[in-house]
Amino acid sequence: MDGFKAEEIFNQLTGYTYNDIILLPGFIDFDVQQVNLETRLTKNIKLQLPFVSSPMDTVTETDMAVHMALLGGIGILHYNNTIEDQVEMVRGVKRYENGFITDPVVLSPEHTIDDVLDIKKKKGFSGIPITENGTLESRLIGIVTTRDIDFEKDKSKKLQAVMTTNLITANEGVTLSEANDILRKKKVGKLPIIDQNGLLKMLMSRTDLKKNRDFPHATKSEKKQLRVGAAISTHDQDKERLAELVANNVDVIVIDSAQGYNVYQINMLQYIKKTYPALQVIAGNVVTKEQAEALIKEGADALRIGMGPGSICTTQETMATGRPQATAVYHTAKIAKKYDVPVIADGGISTIGHIMKALSLGAGTVMMGSLLAGTSESPGDYYYKDGVRLKKYRGMASIEAMKEGGEKRYFATEESIKVAQGVSGTVIDRGSLLNFIPYLAQGVRHAFQDTGFRDLKALHAGLDNGKLRMQIRSFSSIREGGVHDLYQFEKHMI
Fold it and tell me: Could you give the percent of the chain with pLDDT greater than 70?
């Protein structure tokens, strides 16, 4: 047979990254839509898509977690915040109902048209409810839409002078179907949902309804709520954070540590399994069989694989420790399979091809940071530089993030001298997850089809029995496989 088995490639002196290998094509006897990407995040949590958003403060907060779950993946909330902040994010995901906006942007009558235009520029919408003091804790008194301000020349005019006060509203408890009927019959674009005291609780948008009408692959719990994960540190004080997260129905906990083979992680893992035996726990990060097996034996329900492969991580360079990611995924997944424990390939994912290679080497899911940081659902605002629309993205071991709490995963909280293992940077706008995740999923389906496998189970079987063949690439072949020898080109992911 052409090519080589994975074990022939990865049982060598050299460690390999995703770009160092190429998968050989297989026989196609099925349509791309027949590819099934269903997988397991942990022993007991299934996903329809193998996509997980990273617990980074420039990647995953409520909006990201909601949309990842709606689209068939899952989001892991970062912990570079207070316990109350992280718990409120969990509540936001659990409160979410398809078609309803549970945390709408609101303004007060003292705000101006300029404020509405600023929101439209940053967030892409302009239908803004107006409450007495500009918060959700005061009475709804009006709404401002594009039609209210389109022909107003004075952009400093206060909203109380232009807002619509003759409101069409619905009472709290209205169903999605009932709210949809009101939108259709009253011919309005926004429908505020209020409680018995007139306080704004939710907002329904005709545009969002069209987008959110049906998410058949949404990741939901037995209670029909969206699933969400949250990260905690190995420090004892995070046991309080853990208790609050569990009390608010978090579905899975990630023990977040850059080097997960340590006594602190083992102690935390043992504590969680003893105190909350039903709670699913993802341990890591690890890159060797010894590390992986040790955490599995302590009760880990999944492992997070990767040490230094991320685009903003400099651990391998700074600390001279880690492992090339393709090699790390292969060896840890192989040992984890003996215990029926899924592994998550964390870091180094920047293309659809990388996702496919990670899954082909034994991963059940991929955890993405930079690939998702530029989407409209990630935290932060867009800005322009040299005509390019960008968002900030930073490693949790960058000096900037460590000052705000990111050092907890690097055992550096008590150190007066901080040694950075990451950088801060920017990523290009990738639009909304509503378009980007389906694009990634379809690309992965095509990759499965090219290699001749219909689902992840068959792919992993091919990895084990040698049906899946691969080849090491030279530097010239890597160059050949990308764009080359053009005077000018544009490259878009979507």
Answer: 89
- Model pLDDT for residues 307-341, shown as the tens digit of each residue: 977 666 767 777 778 899 999 999 999 999 999 99
User: How much is the pLDDT for 177?
Assistant: 77
Summary mean pLDDT of the chain: 89
Q: Mean of the pLDDT values across residues 16-35?
A: 97
The catalytic residue among 304, 313, 394, 469 is: 313
pLDDT of res. 169: 92
Three-state secondary structure string covering the chain: CCCECHHHHHCCCCCCCHHHEEECCCCCCCCHHHCECCEECCCCCEECCCEEECCCCCCCCHHHHHHHHHCCCEEEECCCCCHHHHHHHHHHHHHCCCCEECCCCCECCCCEHHHHHHHHHHHCCCCEEEECCCCCCCEEEEEECHHHHCCCCCCCCEHHHCCECCCCCEECCCCHHHHHHHHHHHCCCEEEEECCCCEEEEEEEHHHHHHHCCCCCCCECCCCCECCEEEECCCCCHHHHHHHHHHCCCCEEEECCCCCCCHHHHHHHHHHHHHCCCCEEEEEEECCHHHHHHHHHCCCCEEEECCCCCCCECHHHHHCCCCCHHHHHHHHHHHHHCCCCCEEEECCCCCHHHHHHHHHCCCCEEEECHHHHCECCCCCCCEEECCEEEEEEECCCCHHHHCCCHHHHHCCCCCCCCCCCECEEEEECCECHHHHHHHHHHHHHHHHHHHCCCEHHHHHHHHHHCCCCEEECCHHHHHHCCCCCCCCCCCCCC
Q: Which CATH superfamily groups domain 6-97+232-480?
A: Aldolase class I (3.20.20.70)
CATH topology of domain 100-212: CBS-domain (3.10.580)
* Active site (annotated) includes residue 147: no
Q: Active-site residue 313, yes or no? A: yes
- The catalytic position among 40, 304, 394, 409 is 409
